[in-house]
Design goal:
By secondary structure, this protein is of the alpha+beta class. Helices cover 17% and strands 17% of the residues. It has one domain (17-95): Alpha-Beta Plaits (2-Layer Sandwich). It starts with 23 loop residues before the first strand and ends with a strand. The strands form two sheets. The protein has a two-stranded antiparallel ribbon with strand order 1-4. Strands 2-3 form a two-stranded antiparallel sheet. The protein contains three helices and four strands, in the order E-H-E-H-E-H-E.
């Protein structure tokens, strides 16, 4: 491969690896401040930011209206717990 080359990835052909996960990261909507710290630390790149729903804004309070919320693709999450470790406000908790 040449230096700086990009490896193509076909998401449709990727095996769904989340089924063998032992622990699952869960987001506490009331604590998540939308800092995006967890996103680049995820080794599987299964985390992304999205807008909060009306119900999530009510739970989070008014400060969260402009703040995004992290979302996890559980079909590919392996439950490594890195996201929970790097979260500065401990909004991610690993659960069975």
């Amino acid at each position: 491969m040449e230096k700086g080359g990009i490896i193509g990835h076909n998401q449709a052909k990727a095996p769904k690896t989340g089924a063998w996960r032992y622990l699952k990261p869960e987001i506490d909507v009331s604590k998540c401040i939308g800092c995006k710290t967890c996103v680049p630390h995820c080794p599987e790149a299964v985390m992304e930011m999205r807008e909060r729903s009306e119900a999530e804004i009510e739970i989070s309070g008014k400060f969260a209206k402009e703040k995004e919320l992290v979302d996890i693709d559980y079909e590919y999450c392996k439950g490594c717990g890195v996201c929970a470790q790097v979260c500065p406000v401990k909004a991610i908790v690993m659960k069975k």
